Amino acid sequence: MSDFLRPLAELRERHSSKWRRYPADVLPMHVAEMDYEIAPQIKNLLIDFVQRSDLGYIGPIPEVAEGFVAFAQRHWGWTPDAKQIRIATDVSVGTVEILRAITQPGDRVLINTPVYAAFFGWLREVGCEVADVPLIPDLETWRLDLQGIERAFQDGVKYYLLCSPHNPMGRVHEQHELEAIANLAHRYGVVVISDEIHAPLTYRDQKFVPYLSVSDAARETGVVVTAASKSFNLAGLKASIIVTQSATMAERIGGVVPDIHWRSGILGGFAMAEAFTSCDDWLAQAVEANRANRDLLTRLVSERLPGVPYWVAQGGYLAWLDLSSLNLGDNPATRILEEKRISLVPGIDLGADYGQYVRINFACSAEAIEQTVSAIASYL
Ligand SMILES: Cc1ncc(COP(=O)(O)O)c(C=O)c1O
User: Fold this and answer.
1) Would the CB of 202 count as within 6 Å of ligand 1?
2) Best mutation site among 16, 17, 31, 92 for ligand 1, i.e. most ligand atoms within 8 A of its Cβ?
3) Which domain holds residue 350?
4) 301 C-alpha to center of ligand 1: Å?
5) 299 and 56 in contact (C-beta within 8 Å)?
6) Mean pLDDT value across residues 196-210
7) How many angstroms is it from 230 CA to the middle of ligand 1?
8) Ligand 1 centroid vs 226 CA: distance in angstroms?
9) Count: domains in the chain
10) Mean pLDDT over the full length of the chain
11) Contact 249, 219 (CB under 8 A)
12) How far is the CA of 91 from the centre of ligand 1 (A)?
């Protein structure tokens, strides 16, 4: 066991949702947290703040925008304008507040199921309706249905909550797809909110493309909400950024409460700045660990779960499996939890049509991945 990945007994001492939601005999493979140690630079920064009792309200923190601009340059060859980057509590609050500022109750918001379960709650919270254009699966991955998206825009949908990269199957949308969305959004007067929280975890053989980098049409129509929380394992610190790159969009989201900055925390803000500024080595290690785990899972699924459709992630640490052929009843995840003591995310949470699917978090040990696949294989 390395310093990077601690033993299961030690992980069970953690206080986060992953380790507290279920009884101690359950192997948690559900919520999107990684079992890795955080970057030493961030650990030292947090210790330093605590040791100096430097725990007041978050003030001006230009280090975040500067850090994100430099990160985007190094990783994606994109240089956003730092002046249009602002802090928010987390990606959930940032997105909800943008929606609250630009939509009216009853408005329809486009999403692409299967998608991160909280999207449904965010839309409910602001009184918006779901307009679903599901992703289309092929043997390789799940892709955006560009024709379906255009039909929805023609039908009057004015808001689009894009998940890029896409949770749950780790699809990294391609440049031409994002360009097409931007052109459509421009033509039909649609605002695109691009949730890019998983972006830094894209594998090195793939290319993540920030929505706001693709064209003027994207900058005129888009706002990005992102954070270091997912990719640097800092979810409990609560900090994110909202990014626009045009006067039009800055004005459009001008109604987002200014207080959203102060509703973040000093530790989260400075940890995010540190993550974007000086933790590339750690990130490379985490991405490589995830990719190796992805390869292990891919091999185990092909060897031990014949007939179970599964799509190879292009980034991140989530896998999406269709367990229909196992005949596990209405909710396979519930059955696996009860009988095998392993918690997976039920597909139904990610869209009404996906009751037979499960989402697995593979940012863990090889043993945990093997135990999960063996448990599922025992139903064959
Ligand atoms: C696509 C996506 N957006 C947002 C979040 C949550 O972000 P936050 O904790 O910053 O609200 C997650 C968490 O898994 C996610 O997968």
Assistant:
1) no
2) 92
3) 8-37+280-377
4) 27
5) no
6) 98
7) 7
8) 9
9) 2
10) 97
11) yes
12) 6
Average pLDDT of the segment spanning 66-79: 98
What is the Cα–Cα distance from 121 to 18, expressed in whole angstroms?
20
Look at residue 162 in the predicted model and tell me its pLDDT.
99
Any ligand 1 atom below 6 A from CB of 279: no
Instruction: Return the structure tokens found at 12.
Output: 């069970």
Banded model confidence at residue 3, pLDDT cuts 50, 70, 90: confident
Cβ of 88 less than 6 Å from ligand 1? no
User: How many Å lie between the centroid of ligand 1 and the Cα of residue 92?
Assistant: 6
Please state the pTM of the whole predicted model.
Answer: 0.98
Ligand 1, atom nearest to 227 Cα: 10
Same structural domain for residues 155 and 285? no
What does each C-alpha distance from 368 to 35, 40, 53, 301, 343 come to in angstroms?
Answer: 11, 25, 38, 14, 11
Residue 185 inside a domain? The answer is: yes
Instruction: For ligand 1, say whether the CB of 233 is within 6 Å of any of its atoms.
Output: no
Phi-psi domain of 341 (left: phi exceeds 0; alpha: psi -120 through 50; beta: other)? left
Q: State whether the beta carbon of 349 lies less than 6 angstroms from ligand 1.
A: no
Q: Are strands 222-226 and 191-195 parallel, antiparallel or unpaired?
A: parallel
Is 289 found in the same domain as 154? Answer: no
Do 180 and 291 share a domain, yes or no?
no
Contacts of residue 8, Cβ cutoff 8 Å, sequence gap at least 6: 365, 367, 368
- 57 and 143 in one domain? yes
Q: Which atom of ligand 1 is nearest to the CA of 163?
A: 1
pLDDT of residue 1: 52
The string of pLDDT tens digits covering residues 150-170 is: 999 999 999 999 999 999 999
Centroid of ligand 1 to alpha carbon of 327 (angstroms): 31
Give yes or no for residue 36 having a pLDDT over 90: yes
Q: Which of 222, 257, 278 finishes a domain?
A: 278
> From ligand 1's centre to the CA of 34, what distance in Å?
13
**Do 236 and 313 fall into the same domain?**
no
